[in-house]
């Protein structure tokens, strides 16, 4: 090894593929590690080794997508992207399947009110009442309301596509509607 490839201690510096955070000469020496895990309303985040694991965590609802899902997914992908320990991002679903699409129970079971703790949506294009009115088969449908809502969801899902690190969708069981949208934004799908 030539001297210009050695660091001040006479050893070769760690390459990104080896361990970016290891050694006394690391840019991250003496710095705290980023958060290893947390639980959001619709997913969990966990780092094991070099893998960031984002897991949809609503198995009782088939991991159905809510207004919170795209925001939480984008935040988790960004956290993994910024973590020097992480080399790959894996998204999966807890329970019987990957993701059952959009949570239609907001319309059917909750009297058009979002579940407690979800983002406030009243008066926005995400407002369940406005969405129900827009999808009334006897009324005029406004495609721009749907576009505004769906583009918001897709911006969050596309964080997988725009990540600086490889993304993998680990699909098991079902991946329906918006669930397939999420999986298709990943670099690789494993079924």
Describe this structure in words.
The chain has 191 residues and is of the alpha/beta class. It has one domain (37-190): Alpha-Beta Complex (2-enoyl-CoA Hydratase, Chain A, domain 1). It contains 6 helices and 6 strands; from the N terminus they run βββαβααααβαβ. It has helices at 69-82, 105-108, 128-134, 143-157, 159-162, 178-184, and strands at 37-39, 43-48, 51-56, 88-93, 167-170, 188-190. α1 packs parallel to α4 (143-157). The chain is elongated and about 70 Å long. The mean pLDDT is 86.
For this entry, what is the oligomeric state of its chains? single chain
List how many beta strands DSSP finds: 6
Spatial order of the strands forming the largest sheet: 1-2-3-4-5-6
Beta-sheet strand percentage? 5-15%
Coarse structural class: alpha/beta
Helix percent band? 25-40%
- The top-level CATH class is Alpha Beta
* Number of structurally distinct domains: 1
């Amino acid at each position: 090894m030539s001297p210009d490839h050695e660091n001040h201690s006479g050893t070769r510096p760690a390459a990104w593929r080896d361990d970016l955070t290891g050694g006394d000469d690391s840019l991250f020496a003496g710095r705290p590690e980023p958060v290893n895990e947390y639980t959001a309303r619709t997913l969990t985040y966990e780092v094991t080794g070099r893998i960031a694991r984002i897991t949809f965590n609503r198995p009782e609802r088939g991991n159905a997508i809510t207004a919170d899902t795209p925001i939480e997914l984008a935040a988790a992908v960004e956290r993994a992207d910024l973590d020097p320990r992480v080399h790959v991002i894996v998204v999966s679903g807890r329970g019987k399947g990957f993701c059952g699409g959009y949570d239609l129970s907001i319309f059917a079971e909750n009297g058009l009110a979002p579940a407690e703790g979800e983002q406030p949506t009243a008066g926005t294009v995400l407002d369940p009442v406005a969405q129900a009115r827009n999808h009334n088969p006897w009324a005029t449908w406004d495609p721009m309301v749907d576009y505004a809502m769906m583009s918001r969801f897709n911006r969050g899902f596309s964080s997988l596509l725009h990540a600086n690190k490889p993304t993998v969708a680990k699909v098991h069981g079902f991946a329906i509607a918006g669930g397939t949208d999420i999986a298709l934004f990943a670099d690789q799908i494993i079924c």
